[in-house]
Amino acid sequence: MDTVVQLGLVAGGGAVGASARWVAGLLATRLRIAAWVAIMLVNAVGCLAIGLAAGTGVGPGLEAFLLGGVLGGFTTFSTAMLDAWILWRTGRRGAATLCLLGTAAIAMIAVMLGLGVASMVSTGASA
Fold it and tell me: Domain boundaries in the chain?
């Protein structure tokens, strides 16, 4: 399949997934579900869906649209967990563990760094 076609499928699917995540956030707000609980639920649904899709062996077009696009746009967490599972399943246990723990640790560090930089910029401090 042509790379440009795959890119279009991923982009279109990403729009669907990101929109679905946004709607899930609205629904959680209306149902008075805490934001962190809603995020956990979105991640769980995304992981279930990516497991089902990857396990059925979809073709390259549907894989690009569904796995890379829809589910990647819905939650990148599901993609990271699929990658970790593939590493684990193929015997790369150390890499799988690093992927699992490293994703969370690096993400938290990046958030703290971003907040720190934003705070410095907003107060006019220089680094």
Answer: 3-78, 91-127
Query: Mind listing the pLDDT tens digit for each residue in 24-64?
Result: 989 999 999 988 888 889 889 988 998 888 888 888 899 99
pLDDT at 53: 86
Got the DSSP string for the chain? Answer: --HHHHHHHHHHHHHHHHHHHHHHHHHHHHTT--HHHHHHHHHHHHHHHHHHHHHTT--HHHIIIIIIIIIHHH-HHHHHHHHHHHHHHTT-HHHHHHHHHHHHHHHHHHHHHHHHHHHHHHHT---
The pTM of the full predicted model, rounded to 2 decimals, is 0.73
